[in-house]
Amino acid sequence: MAENEKDENDAASKVILPLTRIRTIMKSSPDVQNISQECLFLIGKATEHFVQELGKMTHKQCKKTSEISYNDLCNIVHSDETLEFLQDIIPKKISGREYMEMMENGS
């Protein structure tokens, strides 16, 4: 039983995302002064979980089950209200012609 607990603790303590990069991003905010190791770990794990769930949601909705394309991800972000905050980061693709028309019209 102790070996099982050790394996679970080891798996829980591993974070795939680089914690130094997360710290740098967090410190780029003027509101953040100190970041504890526990906070850094939790933000890393939460981010990993979010990305996994986003991938699962997108995979369920995509047409090709073997791969997820940018358009699949974009469609899920623009169709799910809870992912609305990602719409500026993952915009719908437009052609150069459409962009030029938007610029001419001042949109």
Blueprint of the fold:
Layout: H1 2-13, H2 19-27, H3 37-61, H4 70-79, H5 96-105
How would you sum up this structure, described in words?
- The mean pLDDT is 85.
- This protein is flat.
- The chain has 5 helices and no strands.
- The termini are far apart.
- The protein is an all-alpha fold and 107 residues long.
- It has helices at residues 2-13, 19-27, 37-61, 70-79, 96-105.
Write down the secondary-structure element order.
HHHHH
Catalogue the unreliable spans. none
Structural class: mainly alpha
Strand proportion? under 5%
Cα end-to-end separation: 63 Å
Helix content: 55-70%
Major β-sheet, in short?
none
The 3D shape can be described as flat
Q: How many E-type strands? A: 0
Tally of separate helices: 5
CA radius of gyration is 19 Å
- Mean pLDDT figure: 85
Short description:
Helices cover 62% and strands 0% of the residues. The chain has 107 residues and is an all-alpha fold. The chain is flat, with a radius of gyration of 19 Å.
What are the key terms here?
single chain, 107 residues, mainly alpha
